[in-house]
TrEMBL record:
It comes from Stutzerimonas tarimensis. It is found in: Cell membrane. It is a multi-pass membrane protein. InterPro entries: ATP_synth_I. It holds the Pfam family ATP-synt_I. This is F0F1 ATP synthase subunit I. Signal peptide: none annotated. It comes from the Bacteria. Keywords: Cell membrane, Membrane, Transmembrane, Transmembrane helix. The chain crosses the membrane at residues 20-39, 45-63, 83-100, 106-126.
Length: 132
């Protein structure tokens, strides 16, 4: 028996990570725009939004179930969430490279990688939530 997680996303620990990813996306866009120009600014913003959108999809998909009785459903939802995240990332990058002109690839990948770094340090961000 699969137990559906009815907790809204904004009440789950992953929400703090998503908030930090959006904040880093905006900061990256502002810094790139002020230092390197407007093209670098929106390129950094797009890169961050690609990572954020893919991670949001993963969070919505992966945290659908909870409890020991739902172990199989949890594994399936994590796997499908990760595969969907990878496909979504590839599609979004392809759309950006085809549709956005002019584009600053260095800023695009910098925004993407900075937001991925927030996801990689998620345990540090969530550690504070576990103490309360």
């Amino acid at each position: 028996m699969n137990i559906r997680n009815r907790t809204p996303l904004h009440r789950q620990p992953v929400f703090r990570v998503l908030q930090m990813q959006l904040l880093v996306t905006l900061i990256t866009a502002i810094v790139c725009a002020s230092v390197f120009g407007i093209v670098a600014g929106y390129s950094g913003l797009i890169g961050g939004l690609i990572a954020f959108t893919a991670n949001l999809y993963f969070a919505l998909k992966a945290f659908r179930y909870f409890g020991a009785r739902s172990a199989g459903a949890i594994v399936r939802s994590l796997w499908s969430g990760e595969m969907g995240k990878q496909i979504l990332t590839a599609v979004l990058f392809a759309l950006v490279f085809v549709g956005v002109k002019p584009l600053e690839p260095v800023a695009l990948f910098a925004g993407y990688l900075l937001v991925l770094g927030i996801g990689a340090s998620a345990l540090l961000l969530m550690k504070k939530n576990l103490r309360h």
